[in-house]
């Protein structure tokens, strides 16, 4: 089962954030994804009614006794007001830290990928 979070229009773009079931079951990751994408799009303008569907499709963690490395992968689809897909893309990011900071490192990886995706959206709208 995938977690999902939809929002009202932001800068003319409805943002729908989801997490693939095999990526993570933690709803906090979906909230982080949605808020980071919204932050990345802050100030951007698009024609009203466009939709950005963003999914966290992979969240991989490598743990050693002294470090943790988290890789996040996002996929996005940008649609017009009629539901026609205009383009799709993906973004990836890696964050590192100590095992004690694992939750923060996961959030950082998701946030960095979302920021990367936000820059891509801004360049295309």
Give helix and strand order, one letter per element, not per position.
Answer: EEHEEEH
Q: Structural class of the secondary structure composition? A: alpha+beta
> Which topology does CATH recognise?
Double Stranded RNA Binding Domain
Distance between the termini: 32 Å
Largest sheet, spatial ordering of strands: 1-2-3-4-5
Q: Rg to the nearest angstrom?
A: 15 Å
Tally of DSSP helical segments: 2
What is the number of strand segments? 5
Low-confidence stretches: none
Characterise the protein shown here.
By secondary structure, this protein is an alpha+beta fold. The protein has one domain (3-124): Double Stranded RNA Binding Domain. The protein is 30% helix and 43% strand. It contains two helices and five strands; from the N terminus they run ββαβββα. The protein has a five-stranded mixed sheet, with helices on one face. β3 and β4 form a beta hairpin. The model has no long low-confidence stretch (mean pLDDT 85).
């Amino acid at each position: 089962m995938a977690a999902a979070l939809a929002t009202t229009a932001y800068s003319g773009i409805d943002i729908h954030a989801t997490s693939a079931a095999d990526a993570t079951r933690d709803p906090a990751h979906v909230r982080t994804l949605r808020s980071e994408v919204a932050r990345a799009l802050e100030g951007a303008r698009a024609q009203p009614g466009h939709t950005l569907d963003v999914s966290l499709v992979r969240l991989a963690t490598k743990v050693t006794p002294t470090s943790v490395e988290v890789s996040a992968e996002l996929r996005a689809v940008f649609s017009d007001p009629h539901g026609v897909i205009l383009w799709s893309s993906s973004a990836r990011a890696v964050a590192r830290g100590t095992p004690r900071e694992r939750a923060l490192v996961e959030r950082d990886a998701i946030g960095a990928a979302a920021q990367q995706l936000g820059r891509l959206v801004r360049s295309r709208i």
